[in-house]
Each structure stands twice: as C-alpha cells, then as structure tokens.
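To the wet lab folks,

You asked to see what we're planning to order before we commit. Fair enough. Below is the target structure as tokens, and below that is the sequence we designed to fit it. If anything looks off to you, flag it before the synthesis order goes out.
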C-alpha cells in the first residue's frame, strides 16, 4: 500500500516539474523580479506538499543584501529554502545541463560554479559580490557536500569572500528534517555516500509525513575576520541552531 501511495506521489512530482518548466519558459519573461520570486516560493511549497513535507520556519530571513549559509542534507534543501524565502543559490555547474531540472534552477536564479576550479571560483565570487552590492539575497552550502543529517561538516571559506568584498552580512541557517508525528529527526531525505537521486526520492516518498524546519540565526558581519575565521564561526552558529 505504501508503494502504491508513493507511486501516485511520484506521478504528481513529474506533473509539478513539468508545470514548473512551463512556468519558467513561458510565464517568467512577463513577470517582475518580485513576481518571479513569489512564483518560485509557491511552486516549491507545492512540490514539497506533494512529496509530503511541511515547511516550518523559525526566526526571520534577513532582507538583502545578505548571504545565507546553510548546512546541506539533501537535494531537497534548495526547495525547502526557496519555500521559506526565495534566494539565489550557488549550484554546481552540472545541474545546469540536467533535463528539466537545469531549466528550473536557472529560472530560479541560480549561479553556477565548476567545482574544483579555482579560476571559476574567483569568477563566481565576483559575480556574487556584484549581486550582493545590488541588494540581492544569495545562499550557499559551505560544507560543499551533503552530510548525514546529524553532523555539520567543516565549512569551506572561498565563497564567503563575496560577502567580505561586498561588505554584506551572512546569516546562518539550519535545516532539519523530522518525522511529522514523532518530531524525531528523520534521515529519509538524506542524500549522501552512494545514494542516487531516484533512490533518495523514492525513500522520501515512502516515508511518513515529514517536517522540514528552517531556522534562521542572527546575521553576522565580518568584523575584521578573514574568510576562514568567519567560516569557522558560521559553522559553529549553524551547529548550535541544529541543536
């Protein structure tokens, strides 16, 4: 019975992806930036509702210019953060070429980076700094990889240079997935080690109803710290928010 219910949700996920693709291709060119942001939030909440995930927000997302730094658990993290407050993500360049998904992430305003390329990292940092100077809200996952949903991994500092260059604050954000009934931490959405996107999606669809909690901390300024010192401080802040 659970597999049958999951199969029905999977079909609805496909329909929602196609609706999002249509929205990006046809409706977005006619919308203002504010209208696009609202449309992304509504679409993301709709997708999460189909999957069986309720979004709960604690704290307040900062107004731009701000760079949000969050822990990384799942491919669902971007959807969850979009549903809570639309922001532009820095994503790995491979996503841009994924069928349908690439168009959706591009439509959502993502910036792309070639992982492992120092030159491309510098290019993206400059691009991020310009966006912050324009008052935008950006988001990164400084861990660089998805974790196990329990431990916050060390934060990489490179992309945080954008906030220092733009003299913009960074807001720590903690993401957690919980069983909606027991309120215990759920590992069903985790996407790490040898997981594939399909296996992770199917496991999530088969899971009991879930809650995605987004907890916003107080935004921080560099206050003379270099990016590595700031990265360590942000990692501690996110870990504290996860407790």
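Sequence we intend to order:
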């Amino acid at each position: 019975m659970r597999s049958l219910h999951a199969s029905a949700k999977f079909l609805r996920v496909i329909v929602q992806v196609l609706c999002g693709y249509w929205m990006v291709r046809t409706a977005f060119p006619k919308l203002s930036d504010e209208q696009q942001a609202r449309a992304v939030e509504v679409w993301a909440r709709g997708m999460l509702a189909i999957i069986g995930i309720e979004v709960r927000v604690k704290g307040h997302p900062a107004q731009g210019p701000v760079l949000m730094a969050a822990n990384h658990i799942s491919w669902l993290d971007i959807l969850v953060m979009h549903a809570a407050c639309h922001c532009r993500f820095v994503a790995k360049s491979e996503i841009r070429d994924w069928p349908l998904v690439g168009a959706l992430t591009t439509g959502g305003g993502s910036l792309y980076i070639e992982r492992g390329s120092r030159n491309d990292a510098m290019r993206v940092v400059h691009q991020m700094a310009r966006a912050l100077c324009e008052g935008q809200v950006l988001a990164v996952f400084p861990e660089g990889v998805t974790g196990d949903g329990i431990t916050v991994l060390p934060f990489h500092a490179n992309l945080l240079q954008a906030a220092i260059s733009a003299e913009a604050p960074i807001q720590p954000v903690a993401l957690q997935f919980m069983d909606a009934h027991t309120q215990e931490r759920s590992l069903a959405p985790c996407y790490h080690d040898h997981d594939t996107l399909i296996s992770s999606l199917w496991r999530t669809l088969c899971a009991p109803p879930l809650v995605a909690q987004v907890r916003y901390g107080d935004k921080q300024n560099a206050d003379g710290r270099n990016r590595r010192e700031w990265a360590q401080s942000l990692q501690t802040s996110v870990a504290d928010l996860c407790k």
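Structural context that might help your review: The chain has one domain: 2-242. The helical segments are 2-27, 33-51, 77-84, 101-107, 118-133, 161-166, 197-206, 227-242.

Thanks,
Computational group
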